Amino acid sequence: MSTEIVPIRSDSPLYAGALRLRHEVFVVEQAVPADIEVDELDEGAQHYVVLEGEEVVATMRIVPYGGALKVGRVAVRKDLRGAGLGRRLLEEAIRIGAAQGARALVLNAQVVAAPFYRKLGFVEEGPIFDEAGIPHTRMVRVMA
Ligand code: COA
User: pTM of this prediction?
Assistant: First the structure.
């Protein structure tokens, strides 16, 4: 499988594949309500996908957030987790943030995923809060 990360917009034919994977991971696996999984930021966001053949097997999106960038909807197909794809996506986000002169990368991490983001230089900020019935923590990676 290629681990090339392909940048797409919501008008790309690959966007449907990204939404399919997100549905499978967040709505089916994690019981996030379908009507909040896709939100108003999706249409204008920069999306990224990793493909196996024509299937999207990993995805994330990035949106502007003041002088920072907000990373979200990070998902890897269940059977491919633990193989470094999530790390590849976040390393790409860090590279993009640096290239764009972003002040920081921010994200709302599921508390159980916080160790994954910590390994990539993110630190928790503020209290734990509920989002879609799942405990979350805000995490920030200040760019050097
Ligand atoms: N808890 C603790 N450590 C974790 C972890 C977790 N949930 N997920 C990954 N890690 C660690 C890995 O062990 C690895 O450590 P190492 O470098 O010391 O070996 C490192 O983080 C990178 O892991 P990687 O294989 O790149 O992660 P992944 O491809 O499985 O992607 C997620 C991580 C969280 C994106 C993936 O598990 C996923 O899609 N989960 C379901 C959706 C989700 O919860 N998304 C996050 C929403 S905030």
Answer: 0.97
CB of 83 shorter than 6 A to ligand 1 = yes
- What is the number of structural domains in the chain? 1
For the sheet containing 46-52, what is the strand order? 5-8, 46-52, 55-65, 68-76, 104-110, 134-142, 123-131
Dihedral-angle region of residue 9 (phi above 0 means left; psi in -120 to 50 means alpha; beta otherwise): beta
How many Å apart are CA 143 and CA 82, to the nearest integer? 26
- Cα of 115 to ligand 1 centre, how many Å? 8
Q: Is the CB of 25 under 6 A from ligand 1?
A: yes
User: Sign of dihedral through CA atoms 60, 134, 83, 102?
Assistant: positive
Residue-range definition of the domain harbouring residue 98: 5-142
CATH number at residue 35: 3.40.630.30
Structure tokens at 105: 């990368």
What digits encode the pLDDT tens for the residues 110-132?
999 999 999 999 999 999 999 99
